[in-house]
């Protein structure tokens, strides 16, 4: 048999061929990135991956598109090996799953310290594309769906990672305490922990989670982890600029919880210490002139105000809907998800060529991504800004991960 044309992962889009599964590309890429290990994880995905290929072949036979499972797998394996910017370590020392994966901040960090990602999920299609461009894997979709949870391999999870969105916990906080978080995305994390019992749970969220609903939200989360699930919890608010030598003022709450039956010496865990900030914003900014679309022209309605306030070249300013605020500490302010949509918090600098917004590449750099390797797909800048603002700072996650591995 001979292929009429080459096969790639986009051939398995659920909109293109009949009898397809909405998660076909996720199933295939998860299998391709685990089949080299020849273990129970690759066995777990193999049956579903072959079923995807069989359904594809059945759909294409009417077009004289004949091939075999093996031919298709070989083509896909070649592409997977050839196109992965950040591959799984050859000899991984622990397994983890990447929930609410975004663009792969947790994955990049934990692969750097020897981790193997055996499952990822992210519902946003733009973030999925960025993830695929760098890790060669399509995350599974909506983790609130039971069929998506069903693709998590059993019994192989050392660390569960989740930068879960913080939805309102008011019902749980006011009425039922730790006994009920239904209606929140943390409930799905709770379900997965209960079913799979990872050795470590590694969570990240906005600093305000601690004070949300007068502290009741955070109390619910800690109580669930400790009293219902039986984990031992450590948590701390850490700032990117004090713990990574990256000049971004970004405070986030990190929660690390250990199963004491699996991790006996969990008491030895501690969060990383502060490090000196020796870099400046100029280590993360592009020095040459950027595209015109990033600069404010003199006929822009806000240019007079911008020109009056944005006078220094050694700091990053913020556009706050109707006024400009200077960051006196000479670092980048917190990057937010709405900075590319015309909302407030738009980061602005003055360079040798004028007054402009930060580029998406610069925003990714302030989040710790190696911009010489990390690929940004050709999608709308507004989506890239959102992805950068929603991401974790990878360098900080890596430092915390190193402290977790010391305990493991």
Reported for the largest beta sheet, the result is:
6 strands, mixed
| Helical residue percent band | 25-40%
Q: What percentage of the residues does DSSP assign to strands (E)?
A: 5-15%
Instruction: Count all strands and give the number.
Output: 10
- What structural class do you assign from the helix and strand content? alpha/beta
Order of helices and strands: HHHEHEHHEHHEHEHEHEEEEHHH
Rg calc: 23 Å
Our count of helices gives: 14
The end-to-end distance, rounded to whole angstroms, is: 49 Å
The stretches of 5 or more residues where confidence is low (pLDDT under 50) are: 169-179
Assembly state: single chain
Which whole number gives the mean pLDDT? 89
Overall geometry comes to globular
Spatial strand order of the main sheet: 2-1-3-4-6-5
Detail the topology: elements first, then pairings.
Blueprint: H1 24-32, H2 40-60, H3 69-83, E1 94-99, H4 105-112, E2 115-120, H5 125-135, H6 146-149, E3 159-162, H7 170-176, H8 185-196, E4 200-206, H9 216-228, E5 232-239, H10 240-243, E6 251-258, H11 303-309, E7 317-319, E8 324-326, E9 346-351, E10 354-357, H12 360-366, H13 381-390, H14 394-407
Parallel strand pairs: 1-2, 1-3, 3-4
Antiparallel strand pairs: 4-6, 5-6, 7-8, 7-9, 9-10
Helix pairs in contact: 1-2, 4-14, 7-9
């Amino acid at each position: 048999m001979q292929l009429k044309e080459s096969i790639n992962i986009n051939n398995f889009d659920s909109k293109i061929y009949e009898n397809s599964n909405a998660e076909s590309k996720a199933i295939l890429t998860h299998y391709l990135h685990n089949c080299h290990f020849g273990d129970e994880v690759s066995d777990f995905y193999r049956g579903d991956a072959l079923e995807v290929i069989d359904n594809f072949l059945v759909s294409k036979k009417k077009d004289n598109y004949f091939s075999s499972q093996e031919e298709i797998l070989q083509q896909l394996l070649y592409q997977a090996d050839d196109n992965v910017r950040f591959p799984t370590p050859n000899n991984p020392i622990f397994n983890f799953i990447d929930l609410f994966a975004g663009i792969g901040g947790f994955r990049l960090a934990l692969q750097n310290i020897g981790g193997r990602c055996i499952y990822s999920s992210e519902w946003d299609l733009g973030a999925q594309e960025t993830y695929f461009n760098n890790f060669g894997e399509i995350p599974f979709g909506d983790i609130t769906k039971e069929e998506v949870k069903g693709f998590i391999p059993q019994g192989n999870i050392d660390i569960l990672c989740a930068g879960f969105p913080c939805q309102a916990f008011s019902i749980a906080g006011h009425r039922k305490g730790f006994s009920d978080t239904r209606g929140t995305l943390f409930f799905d994390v709770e379900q997965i922990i209960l079913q799979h019992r990872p050795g470590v749970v590694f969570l990240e969220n906005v600093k305000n989670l601690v004070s949300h609903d007068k502290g009741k939200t955070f109390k619910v989360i800690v109580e669930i982890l400790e009293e219902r699930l039986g984990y031992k919890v450590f948590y701390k608010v850490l700032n990117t600029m004090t713990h990574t030598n990256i000049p971004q003022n970004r405070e986030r709450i990190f929660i690390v919880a250990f199963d004491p039956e699996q991790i006996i010496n969990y008491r030895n865990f501690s969060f990383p210490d502060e490090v000196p900030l020796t870099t400046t914003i100029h280590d993360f900014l592009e020095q040459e002139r950027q595209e015109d679309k990033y600069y404010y022209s003199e006929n822009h309605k806000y240019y007079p105000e911008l020109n009056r306030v944005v006078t220094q070249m050694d700091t990053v300013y913020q556009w706050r809907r109707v006024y400009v605020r200077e960051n006196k500490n000479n670092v980048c302010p917190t990057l937010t998800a709405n900075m590319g949509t015309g909302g407030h918090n738009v980061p602005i600098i003055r360079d040798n060529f004028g007054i402009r917004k930060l580029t998406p590449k610069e925003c990714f750099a302030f989040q710790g991504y190696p911009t010489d390797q990390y690929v940004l797909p050709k999608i709308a800048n507004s989506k890239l800004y959102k992805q950068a603002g929603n991401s974790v700072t990878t360098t900080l996650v890596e430092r915390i991960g190193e402290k977790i591995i010391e305990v493991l």
